[in-house]
Design a protein that fits this description.
By secondary structure, this protein is α/β, with parallel strands linked by helices. It has helices at residues 41-48, 55-58, 124-129, 131-141, 160-170, 185-191, 224-227, 247-258, 271-283, 300-308; strands at residues 2-5, 16-19, 29-39, 71-79, 91-95, 106-110, 115-117, 151-155, 175-180, 195-198, 212-217, 231-239, 262-264, 291-295, 315-319. The protein has 2 domains: 2-130 and 289-319, Alpha-Beta Complex (Quinone Oxidoreductase, Chain A, domain 1), CATH 3.90.180.10; 133-264, 3-Layer(aba) Sandwich (Rossmann fold). The chain is globular and about 60 Å long. Bound molecules: NADP nicotinamide-adenine-dinucleotide phosphate. NADP nicotinamide-adenine-dinucleotide phosphate binds at residues 40-42, 133, 136, 155-156, 158-162, 179-181, 199, 218-221, 240-241, 268, 310-313.
């Protein structure tokens, strides 16, 4: 099978496409033929080992896994002897943000890991495009108590996390102000934003007439100190990044002790629960895939170079095969 490989941390140039033996499923594993996977910001973090602590999960001195990739959509082509939940022919999608060796034509995954059936009305590309960003968005949003009509600002609402957050909030009838750039204003409205701010024209942190129950900086470009005045009395600030001097690691404790407005820095853990939630959103028509570009596996270095710019809209896909 064709697989992307790398033996050390580095830039996209360390990636190489090779022929490798197809993996064989153990008793509790399924073998999946991968139709599509994404190159996402987590893959970029693992590729370059940034930030450093990521190495505690992915390998201290070199990547533990020869093959990169964190998500997939495909078809079960073989099952281990003890597998009971899947059959060959099942259409499935899965995620493991610590590494899943999914940048390959085939992969094996334990049947009880984060792998679930793809909803019938959704194709492989749509499913995989929503996995990684949707997982983080779900885990960031579910730490905040919101009610119908709560006012939320999403910065970076065009990214994989932001565009999913926007749709997940909309499914709960939240009033959303979404921040993006000129080329994506229409998209933000279409995904459910009630109000759109163009960061090329205005800096949302400088507004003096707006207040929110929750500010979610999905691209991590702001800071709590700049956003604090925009929060209502018990408002919550979450950023997807560590922030200046990694302040989002200690501000949750300080703001909790002080009371009132608070910073939270959630650690996304339960991947299967995220996938099940996303499946339900798909089935109820609340989620649509936002796909920026598609690459072949041979173009893997270009795909990573593009994603590393931090300017993609939604997801970037590697497509192995588009047939069902
Ligand atoms: N904490 C965690 O566990 C975790 C996990 C995964 C990812 N992350 C981090 O979360 C961030 C977002 O991830 P992602 O996958 O959604 O990234 P992404 O898909 O690359 O999206 C980032 C989006 O932000 C937009 N953007 C760039 N500059 C902006 C600005 N100044 N104001 C508003 N929007 C801006 C970009 O579009 P334009 O440039 O076209 O505007 C792009 O659409 C990344 O920094 C990533 O490292 C954190």
């Amino acid at each position: 099978m064709k697989a992307v490989t790398r033996t050390k941390y580095g830039g996209p140039e360390v990636l190489e496409v090779r022929d490798m033996p197809q993996p064989e499923p153990k008793d509790d594993e399924i073998l999946v033929r991968v139709h599509a996977t994404t190159v996402n910001r987590t893959d970029c973090g693992i590729l370059t080992a940034t930030p450093f602590p990521i190495r505690f999960f992915t390998g201290l001195f070199k990547p533990k896994s020869l093959v990169p990739g964190t998500d997939f959509a495909g078809v079960v082509v073989a099952i281990g002897e003890k597998v009971t939940n899947f059959r060959t022919g099942d259409r499935v999608w899965g995620l493991n943000d610590e590494g899943l060796a999914s940048h390959a034509e085939y992969l094996v995954i334990k049947e009880d890991a984060a792998v679930i059936p793809i909803p019938e009305n959704i194709d492989f590309e749509e499913a995989v495009a929503c996995a990684e960003g949707g997982h983080y968005a779900f885990n960031f949003l579910n730490k905040v108590k919101l009610v119908e009509g709560s006012e939320v600002l999403v910065n970076g609402a065009t990214g994989a996390i932001g565009s999913s957050a926007l749709q997940q909030l909309k499914s709960r009838n939240i009033y959303i102000t979404a921040v993006g750039n000129t080329k994506n204003l229409k998209l933000l409205e279409q995904l459910g934003a009630d109000k759109v701010l163009n960061y090329e024209e205005v800096d949302f942190t400088e507004a003096d007439d707006e207040q929110y129950d929750f500010i979610f900086d999905a691209v991590g470009k702001s800071s709590y100190s700049k956003c604090k005045k925009l929060l209502k009395r018990n408002g919550i600030y979450i950023s997807s990044e560590l922030g200046p001097s990694a302040e989002n690691l200690y501000l949750p404790l300080i703001t909790k002790i002080r009371g009132g407005k608070r910073v939270i820095f959630p650690i996304p853990i339960d991947r299967k629960r995220s996938l099940l939630h996303l499946k339900e959103l798909f089935e109820n028509g609340y989620l649509q895939a936002v796909i920026d570009r598609k690459y072949s596996v041979e173009e893997i270095q270009d795909a990573y170079r593009y994603v590393l710019k931090g300017q993609k809209t939604g997801s970037v896909l590697i497509v192995f095969s588009s047939d069902d």
